[in-house]
């Protein structure tokens, strides 16, 4: 059978983790409303795409598990939906999208080696991590190459999302790169999008409206 294109839609936060808090609403609920709406629109317009949600209700899912859901499904694309916030009364309007930035500096490689060496304690890690040696630089070069391909595609997807926001009249806050753990752990092109600012009153109202969700 031909491979079915699989999209994982990740509504950030949930359950005991509310995310950012607005005047009258919580990030976790905005994220979920939008995630479900995106899934509905994809289903309507691309019926052959399989959609998997990391959560469909108000439950807590840890970061690792969000990435694992996508990896287990051998997903083709991972989109994490979040809502932005600013501290102490600062306001901003607009949407921005992130792809994973892999800083290549020597100290980052050392940190990665140290953090990844925990897999040596896991059972049958050779099979589970297919020959990945946490102490060998070669492992990271191959890993970087795979990440490179994904990073190009992720950045491209992020630009597409920003264009779509613009076309819908949203202020475009651009495409950025950052080391989000949930993106780092996914083995397919992945982005994290920030819908708008829950801490800006008019944005909060917009993000909670049917028009804003759409």
What does this molecule look like?
The structure is a single chain. The protein has helices at residues 27-45, 63-72, 106-116, 125-128, 137-167, 181-184, 201-207, 210-213, and strands at residues 6-11, 50-53, 77-84, 95-100, 172-178, 190-197. It is 42% helix and 18% strand. The two termini are 34 Å apart. It has eight helices and six strands; from the N terminus they run βαβαββαααβαβαα.
Strand and helix map with partners:
Layout: E1 6-11, H1 27-45, E2 50-53, H2 63-72, E3 77-84, E4 95-100, H3 106-116, H4 125-128, H5 137-167, E5 172-178, H6 181-184, E6 190-197, H7 201-207, H8 210-213
Parallel strand pairs: 1-2, 1-3, 3-6, 4-5
Antiparallel strand pairs: 4-6
What is the average per-residue confidence, as pLDDT, rounded to a whole number? 86
Taking the sheet with the most strands, its summary is:
6 strands, mixed
H-E string: EHEHEEHHHEHEHH
End-to-end gap = 34 Å
- Helix run count: 8
Main sheet: which strands, in order across?
2-1-3-6-4-5
Contiguous uncertain segments of 5+ residues: none
Shape by Cα distribution: globular
Judged by helices, strands and strand pairing, the structural class is alpha/beta
Helix percentage range: 40-55%
Rg from Cα: 18 Å
